[in-house]
Structure formats: structure tokens, C-alpha cells
Task: structure prediction
Amino acid sequence: MLNVKTERTINFSDEQEQLLEIATNFCREKSEIAQVRSLLNDEKGFAPQIWLEMAELGWMGVAIPEEFGGSGLGLGEVVALVEPMGRALFTSPFITTTLAAQALLAGGTQSQQARWLPRICKGAVLSLALSELHGDWDLSNLTATALEKNGQLELSGTKTFVSYAPDAQALIVSVSLNGAPALVLVDAEALPEGALVRETNVDETQRTYRVVLDGLRVPSDALLNSGDIVPVLNQIHLAANLLSAAELSGGIGGVLEYTLDYLRTRKQFDRLIGSYQSLKHTMTDILLGYEATRSHLYYAAGCFGADAEGEIALRMAKAQASETLAYAADRAIQFHGGFGFTYDCDAQLYRRRAIWGASFHGDAPFHRQKLGDLLL
Amino acid sequence: MLNVKTERTINFSDEQEQLLEIATNFCREKSEIAQVRSLLNDEKGFAPQIWLEMAELGWMGVAIPEEFGGSGLGLGEVVALVEPMGRALFTSPFITTTLAAQALLAGGTQSQQARWLPRICKGAVLSLALSELHGDWDLSNLTATALEKNGQLELSGTKTFVSYAPDAQALIVSVSLNGAPALVLVDAEALPEGALVRETNVDETQRTYRVVLDGLRVPSDALLNSGDIVPVLNQIHLAANLLSAAELSGGIGGVLEYTLDYLRTRKQFDRLIGSYQSLKHTMTDILLGYEATRSHLYYAAGCFGADAEGEIALRMAKAQASETLAYAADRAIQFHGGFGFTYDCDAQLYRRRAIWGASFHGDAPFHRQKLGDLLL
Amino acid sequence: MELTEQDRNDFRAEVRLWFKENTPEDPGFVLPQTFMEVGTDQQFEFLRNWQRKVYEAGYLGMAWPVEYGGGGKPQVLQDIVTEEMIRAKTPLIMNTIGLNWAGPLILAKGSEAQKKAYIKNILTAEDIWCQGFSEPDNGSDLGNAQLKAERDGDEYVLNGSKIWTTHGSYAKYMILLARTNPQANNKYEGLSFFLSPMQVEGIKTVPIKKLTGEYGFTQTFFDDARIPADCIMGSEGEGWKMAMLTLTFERGAAGGQAGGVAILYASVQEVVDMAKKVQRNGRPAVEDPVLRDQLVRLLMDEKALSLGGIRAGMAPLDSERPLALPLSEKLQGSELQRRLADVAVQLQGANMAYYMGDSEAAENGRWQRSYFNAFSATIGGGTSQIQKNIIGERVLGLPKA
Amino acid sequence: MELTEQDRNDFRAEVRLWFKENTPEDPGFVLPQTFMEVGTDQQFEFLRNWQRKVYEAGYLGMAWPVEYGGGGKPQVLQDIVTEEMIRAKTPLIMNTIGLNWAGPLILAKGSEAQKKAYIKNILTAEDIWCQGFSEPDNGSDLGNAQLKAERDGDEYVLNGSKIWTTHGSYAKYMILLARTNPQANNKYEGLSFFLSPMQVEGIKTVPIKKLTGEYGFTQTFFDDARIPADCIMGSEGEGWKMAMLTLTFERGAAGGQAGGVAILYASVQEVVDMAKKVQRNGRPAVEDPVLRDQLVRLLMDEKALSLGGIRAGMAPLDSERPLALPLSEKLQGSELQRRLADVAVQLQGANMAYYMGDSEAAENGRWQRSYFNAFSATIGGGTSQIQKNIIGERVLGLPKA
Result:
């Protein structure tokens, strides 16, 4: 309701404030646009030495309990790291590794946690293999299977959009086991030759792979906790959308500033084009979408995990971020005129990011539909 | 498909051309805005002497066969009369009477046709009583009932939005009879005292009434053809939407010109406000919506009755007209600034018309949903 | 006086109880949703009495100085009262122009005599205030105001006309922007600002019928009307400065308002509730998937607006463009109200054509009326188009045309 | 020659058969959707051969004069060919700038020598033509072109740069707008128009990588390049007039084009067909009610655009604003293509991130690529924003800023 303080407010911690500032400076320095563009054609798609610097800063452990070498904070703090990354188009296996850590915390066995979480804090890359070719955002819709045989699991099927798979020391793979969803922790060394197929992702800053599971065998103890795994999948789904919203929110900030720079300096018909009302008002709409995104985002960051309210908040954040970035980058291309149509104009980088972000665990119409179920 | 001539084209007859011109001049002359406004507080809501002039011009008989005194043309020709009426906010029982005539042609008995169609051509007002309080646009959803008893029909229930009911010599009323839809022709004289209750219609140019049927008895031969009446109801639904689209299309033309006049002459901050791009571009969007409406409308007029293609065309016309007028009139209020907020500014008249038009046999989302069923 | 959380909670409980016990029942006639919609004497008297009652209970002007009739308490208490009024769905507090625009101005810039003369009667609703800024030919362009004020001895002689005067026919005073020097260097320097009496020969108010069919505004005509020279605020030529300061109070960009709810905003939840009751195409409107998508969009926008109010105060999340949230609140709030009323009308399906006064109109035709009334906020106080210019230029640094 | 309906139908049948028998099979590499997208030599050679084949069959330049290589037949026959090409989904006809822009201009305004020299080789695709209008600093503002052409004896010396040169690296000639008199009364009078050769020392083309990752345009640099003085069209100072005439051909506002399909527009039905095949949230995308609403909107817009083309010729339905439909076709067509590609991408759900080259990309990533390529038409030839200004001013009579 307008002008009324909601009972719940935005909880923005000192840690978030510090991380936001540190990450902003870090990304500004380490991810200048020349660096971003040089990575587009790089096979890895990220800079390993910078990844190690991040590990040294403790970023991969932010949301990992202290007993495993982390800082014991939450995903709300991770949001403050990811937003600046999105703004600078800085890419690394940070999101997928963070989500893999969350999956282990939510559903891993004690020995899995003890084995992998400390390594993650120190810089090990892990990745999630949850999507399939049918493209359903419901992570419980699984056609990949595991069969138990002689104390081993035999996997088959194909997973899609597995980020940075060749750099991952392990993958967390969802499969159907005895008709129910299950998660399996697959050591990278167990993958057969040719299991990883690089995908052509519209977002060239990303590295994603299809993983062909056929012929893959892992020991039975590679299973995550054998209880009902659906809540774990749901939690990954929500966490993935929170971090995705943060990354997209940053992207809006980036493309907004990039476009404003042009509109403030480019002349046509002897006028600065930013003085034209049709451009000025559109940029204002984009600003308002950006502000709305950030409000949703940091509210969601502060109440992540708080049942329905937390879920509502992050779905709003993702829906708003996703649609706003798509619009902002679409207009950025248009408003850059002929230059906007070139590969050299950064507008396309953000537009491609918007598509990737929308595809990643649900786009705006998907989340609005879910919100309808929660709110109406 | 772009740039490809469709097999079917817009059939615009010489008769349509003539009627369009005649009606444009007629409405310009007979329905100046002062006249429109003087009728807002008039009990009847229309000028009977002008109605008789229309009858003399043969307008009520345009779509009635020659054997009944009409011209034997079709509803496509009526469209060319109604569009200029909408533009001038000219109101009369023309649409409801024309639709009643079509209902009689589609489903009336020979004696009903022989009795009423010639009278309609000469200026008798008839009206349709099809809607009910549940507001379903599906005309087969009926809670009003008729019971056959001693060779009579006993009616009960309430019909809504019956146009110009006190001036109607007869009403065509839909009821449920033995569990199936039926249409009953009710002579005005048979209506009990107090059966007509004037409604407060948001569109003050309209006169609509609730008709309380309780206690109403009519002879059995008041039934329209006793076969399946659903196709007749569907035909009325389609015809009503075609004429409504025409009226709304005219309204767009009217409010567009009205607003342009203001934007070309009103200054703020020492500039003609029409020179501001945010207004100019919006007006252009409205123009494009208007042109799209007219293209759909005259295509629909030319292929009315042609099965699926005709139905698709008129639903597109109604959806486009309805949404465009609502938008055009909403922006007209806004762009007139403070004056737009007054009752004296005509923008509100068109905005109210847009609501009435949307309510009348289906708004834009409704028709798009039907189009989805037909096209996807 | 530092208040503890406990103090605030205790006070909130007290206030909540008071409004529970004292909020008037439905008077049997339609009440305004905003202070600009007071269109009948019946409404006016009812709301004036309600304001006096709230004031006498100590819940209005709580943070204004005691010597002029205020409560001398911390602002936070008044804010709690406002929140509780909204929660209790009380009628609105009507004398808004006095309480929230003229009052803070007088307290900030007025002479001791002016404070003594005006402040208390604003609080009690004894004196109703109105505003004379807009003119028929200068709706958006205030700096171009042409109403003439010519000095003649101890008086100014006023000639011209003001428009959109809320409460014009009830007001005892008007905050008036007038041109004292047509030969000034620029249009702004020629303006002066007056606390003009309204019951003066030569001042006439004529009601304006709104697009809803109701009343609420007047046009005010000045025909050789003479007002005392000492009712000027500041000195000659300072009118634009005073007007701009008034607007910062009006827009809530500066504090100092007496409090009270001036506008009863509709919430999206109310639309949702209706969508569950109203039929569309033979089923509850809320089941329509396309409409659900629209409703969720509205809920998201409303939530963002509410969260924006919180975030605006949080420096680390607000440092990049600190003006973005404050400068966009009016634009977004007013446009949201228009859009949600529009959706609320549409979802009524075939019955959307029923208007206020029809027994079958959903929620007494409230939403149709709200939709039309919503334009007062998207037009008044700077149109939405002007707001976007301001944001584009002042927040985004885009060049002026 | 008056053609009967029967003549036209017979001709259509003949053409339909020819395209059925002669339309080439999928060459195994991606073909361009528009003439602006020819990015590889492989594509170029394939399309050049296809154009020659169509010309040799008598289906291109049918209405151009026989003496210059045309068919000397009624325009309606060429229009039938174009329609049948679309129906048969043939590859596009690539030498568009020659066939539809430069060719008509030369036929309308060129000397006999120019017609003899250029027309036939345009039709056979022997000579590829390109256009030099836009410059790096003057994308939208053609009248401000700065490329210098200085007369030196029997030659002009060119210095400067043109950008967005479609077919720049393949072209033998360029229609060139250049500044011959920087001291003219106004910027327009200083311009002249040339049929400039491209294989000249000092002219260099550099490919521009498009946002899709492909090629198709070049930037063209002129560094003391000398061209014969007699390749001017009209006289010095008539450049703006010639450029404007060229744009009327380019925009289809005047007839005289040689024909052939230059742009393979996507139809909404293709998106609908995909929506039936593609899964979204575990069910066919076409079953999503919100998406259905969007698809119907697109179908309506497409139908209106197609009907508008018919209605534009019908005086009684077009008399109020006869320029409205012709002037809005480019705007609406280009924006529709962008929107429909956007929807086509979105409906792919989680798989929308697959791009051209991925074996799992829906329809080979065609829609992602189409979406990006769609901006060439919303930006080129006058941005959509400029189109709206033109319509607002020329059709609606609104004042210029």
C-alpha cells in the first residue's frame, strides 16, 4: 500500500554494504570492457588468476558456514557480490559454484559436505547439471535416469546448460532414480571421454555445456541425501533466481549508464540526441524499472528463505530484473543507431545477457504466473 | 504476410461509399457537440425528429430485404452508417433496432417478420434484451426463464442493458425455455408497470434499462422459431460486435481530431504542446491504431457472414477498435491537462464511450481469447 | 526527546485504539477519496468536523510548535498516527493545503504575526486554505503566471484568474502567486507571493464540474480585488522562491507537514479482492490468466513503490542517484492509481458500464470514478510528462530540449 | 497492353510452375533473410547466380524498357512474380540497391549513356551496386553529409567516409551523396550525387561486424579517390533532390523498381507453428494463455498491415489522411518484425539461450538472429523515432519541435 511502511523492511547488513563496495571496485578494476571482450573468444571464458583472487577474498565461502572454512553469512550477502559482477559483465563460475555449495548444504551427506565445501572456499569450481532438453523450468521434470546396479549408479540421458563444466571438479546432476528425483555428485574424473559438448550460448560471456551421461557410472555414495530431494531442488531454483536477479539488476545499471553516456554526447540534426523527449522518457522508464528492480532485489536478499514472503520477493525481483534488462538493452541497441547494430557496441552484450538470464531458471512471464498462484 | 496481397481483399461497395458520405454529412450537421451535450440530460437521450429523418432516408431498412420495405443490402453497408455516428457521438436506437431486425431475419417466424420488419423500416424502435446481471458475454448463459402454461409463456428474471427500452415498440428477450435458449418477441404493451428501470450508464449518451420480466405473460406465438436458437444468438453476437466496432472506430477518429486541434493550438512554456515528442509520438501511435482499426473494420464489413474468416475479421476489428479508443481517449484526457479533467472537455465523452463499447458484447481481451481459439 | 521502540509501540497501541473507537461510521453518502474531491456541503461539513475531532484528540500538528497550537512532539509520532489512520480506513483529513503546504511555509518563512494569525485555525479547520498557482492559460507553466497585483497604498489590487482551486468556495485564505512587476528582468523575478484573504469584494469563485460529473475545484476570478499589503510573504519579487518552497512541501520533498491522510490510495489488493467476487465470461475474473498477469504486474509495481520509500533512506543502496526515488514517487504513484483503476473497471466485464448511482454497479461504481479522478494526480502538480522530463534531466543528466 | 484476369491467371500459373521447378534446394549453409545480410562469399556467389537465373527466365526487370535489357511488359506481371517468389519461399534477389533504388533513379533521371552503361548489368547481377549516404557522424541526418567531392579538371576528388555500405566489398558502383560546395547557402544546396565507381585507387572498404556476429556492411573510406566528372547525376547542387528521389524508390513510395524479393519477412504464422512444436514449462508453448494473447496481437497487427496495403489504394476509405498508410508502412513493418522475433525467442523458454550453430537451437537459432537483425530496419532508412516525427508532422499536422 502506498505511503505505508510495510511491516517487513529492507534488511541491508553492514556485511552487504562492505561486500557491495568491495565487489564494485574489484569488478571495475578486473573487468574493464576490453577484458570482457577479450574473454568472448577465450575457450575458458574466465580468467583463472582472477578466480583465485576471489577465493582469497573469501567470496566463494561467503554463504558457507565457518566450520567448512566459509564466512557463515547468507545468500543475501552473495547478492551484494553478484550485482556488481552483472554490471561489469564480469563472468566466472561464481554463480554455479555458489549454487552447488548451497545444494550440498541443503542436501549433501556429511562426507560430501566435508569433502567439497572447504575446497570450494579455496577455489574449487563445481557446477550444476539440472536442465534438460525439454526446457522445463520445473527441476523435478526429469528424463535423465540413474539405475542402481551392483552398488553403482548407471546414469543415462543428457543435461543442458552446465556452466563451466570443463573447469568443474565435480558436477551435481539431477536424475530420476526409481521414479523419483535424485541428485548425484559426479566427480569430474568419472566423466567419459566426449561427455562434454560445448553449447553455442547466445550470451558469449557464458560457457555452457551439454553433458551426455550415457555410460557414466558412479558409486552409490555419490547420491545426495536419499530423502525427498524435491525441496532441495526447489531451494536451488529459488537461490538461482535470486542470484540471477542480482546479475541482471547489475546489467541494467551497466547498460543504462552506457546508453546515457551516448545520449549525452552524440549529436544528430545539431542536437544532443538525449534532448529528444522520446529518448529521454524511455530512459526515464528504464531508470524507474532499474530502481524497482533494486528495491525488489535487496528486499528479496534480506528475506531469502523466509517462506512464502521470501519466495514472493525473489520471484518479483527476477521478473522485474529480467524484463527491465531486456527492454533496456533493446532500447540501447535502437538508441545507438547504426553503431548499435554493430558487434562493437556493448548494447548487444547486455541484450544477449538478458536472454541468458531469462532462460536461466525462469523468465518474467513464468515468475508472474508463479506469483499469481502465490498471491491471487 | 507482409507485402503480399491476401487472396481476399477489402470489398468496399459503391453503396458503402455513398452511405459513408451521406452519414458523415448528416451527423456533422445533426449532431454538433452542443446537440450531443444537450441530449446528455434528456430523458429520451435522442431526438425523435432526427430519428424519423433517418427512417425517411431508409437507414433502418438498409439491411432488410426489399420485400419488407428495405434496401436489401447487408450489415457491411450499415457499418458505413454507424462509423460516422460514432465519430460525431450521435446516438439513437439505431444499433439496437438494426440488430433486432437482424434477429428477426435470422430467427423470426414469417408472421413476426411480416409484422415488424416493415414497421422498422418506417421508424419503429425495437430493442434487444439479451444480457443478464452475471455479465457473461456468452448469450446462451441464461438465468431468465420462460415457462409454458396454458398456451402462454410466463417469463421471469431480469435482463440488463436494454437500450432505449421505453421507446421500443417491442423487445426481443432471451430466456431459458425447457433448459434451452429461446428468444421471445415481447410487445411493449405487455410489459407490466415498473418493468423498466433506468440504469446509470457510464456513457451518458446512452439510455439503457434493466427489464424485470417477473409477471410478464406473452402468447406462445411470441416465440421466435423454435429450432435451435443458439446459432441465432451467435449471429446477433457477431453482428453486434461488427456495429460496435464501427461505432468505436468513428469514436477514435473523433477524439483523435479533437485532441490534435488542441495540440496544434495550445501553448505551454512558450511552445505549442503538439511539438513535444512524447505527445507527438503518442498521437502517432493512436493514428496507427486508428488506421489498423479501419482496415480491420472495412475488411470485416466486406466479409461479414463468411464463416470463420468473417468472424475472425470482425473480432479483430472489435478488439482493435475497443483498445485503441480506450487508449486514445485516456491520452486525450491527459494531454488536455487541467481542462481534460473537466466535464466540459469532450475527451471524457469518448472515454466513457470506450467503456460502454468494451462492455457491449465483449472487450478486447475477450475477443483476443476467441481469436486464439480460432487461429492458434 | 529520544523515543524508544517501546515508547513508539505504546503510542501506536493508544492511537490504534482511539481510531478504532472514534472512526465515524459510513455517513450514508459518498465520501471523497482525496482532499481534491470535496464536492458537496454535506461532505465538507462532515470532514471539517472529523478534522477538528482528530486535532482535539491531539493527533494533528503533533510536531508543530506548541505556541501556535501544535503538539511540540517528535515527528515520528505524527507519522505513526498517519499510518494508523490508513490502517483504520478513516475518512481523510481535508484541510490539506493549510496543513501540508501553506502551514509549513508560514512556519518556515512567515512573520511571527502570520504564525499567530493562521497556524492554529489551520489545525482546527476553522480556516480552510486554498492555492492560487495555476491559471487558465498556464496550467503547467507556473512561472508564467499573469494574475496582476498592483500596489496601491496599503493594498494590492488583484486582477486576473486562477484555476483548479481546490476548496475555493470554502476557503478563507489563498496562497497566491501573482505578478507584481511585469517589467522584471525575467518572468520569475516579477512574481510575488501572498496569503490572500478570500472574503473580499471582487473575488468570486465558480465551481468547475469534473469529468466524473462531480465538483471539487473552482475557478477564481479577481476583479479589482483589494487585499492588505502586509499579507505578502517575503518581499516583492520573491514569489517564485516561495512557490518553489511550497512545492517542496506539496511534493513531500521537505518535511514539516502537520500530518493527516490527504489521499486514500486504493491498493491493488482491493482490486484483487473484487476480481475474486466479480464474474467475467461466466467465471470469477481472477481466474482469467491474462488478467492474473496484469494483477501481478500491479502488485509488483505497488510493492516496488512501497519498498522504494524505504530504500530511499538507505545510503549504500541509494548513493548512485539519490534523487531518483524521491523525484519519481509522484509520477509512479499517480500512474499506478490510474492503471489499477483501469484494470478494476475492465475486469468487471459486461457490467463495467455501470456507473456510480446504479444499484448493480460493482462496489458502487467506485472504480469507474477512481479511474477518472486519477487524472487529477497525473495532470496536477506537474503532468506525468513533465515529471519524466524532470527525472530525465535532473537524475539522468540528459540535456534539455 | 491491357491484361485480362485470365491473362494474369495464366501467367501466374506459368510462374508458379517455373519457381516450383527452379527454386534451388537448401545449399547446406545459412542463407540471408535480407539483402543486407550477405556476409560470406559463398552466400554472395549463390545469390548472384540465382538472380541471373531469374533474370534469364524473364522474371526480373519485366517492366523496364527493352532497349536497356528489361522486359517491356506491364508492371502487374512483375508483381505477380514477386508474390509467387514469396509463396515459393525462394532465396532473395540480392542486387537490391541496383534493382530497386539506383536503377529506377537512372531510368528516371539518368542520361542515355548512363542507362546504356548500367541498367542491363544491374539486372544480370554482373554489376553490384551499393549506396553511400550515411556517414559515421551523420547516421540519421543525411542532409549533413560531409564527404568532400572537389572538382579537379575532368575528375572529382573524394575524401571522407561512408558507413553501413551494404555489399560494399562486392560493389562495382556506389550511388554517392557528397558535398561539392561547403559554402552553399544551406547544407542541402552544397550536395551533389554521383554514380561512383568503386574499383578506384583511394577507395577502401572495411567490413563491419554486426551485432549478430555476422558481416554484411562495410565502412567505405575515400582518400583522394578520383572519379570521372561525368558520373555526376544531374548537376552540382542537385544532390539532395536526387537523394530524396532515391529514398522514394527505396521506401516504395514511387514505382519503377525492377522487382524481386529483397527481404524475406517472417510471418507470424511461422511463430505460431513453432509455438506448437516448442515446449515451455513442460507443455507446448502455444497452450500458454498469456502467450496466446501476444500471438493474437501479432496476428492482428500483421493482418492490419497487409489490409492497409490494400486500403491505401481505396480513395473513399483513405481520403482523410492519404499519407498515413504509405508513410507508416516502414515503421510498422520493421517494428512488427522485431516484436515477432522477440516473442519467438521468448516462447522457447529455457532453450531460448541457444544460438545459431547449436544443434539444439530451435529452428537453427533463426529467431535469435532475426531479432538482432530486425534492428537494421528499425534503425536504417530513418529510425523508428524519426518515422514517428515524420508521421506526426506530415500526416497529423503537429508542429515541429
Chain C touches chain A through 53 residues (CB under 8 Å).
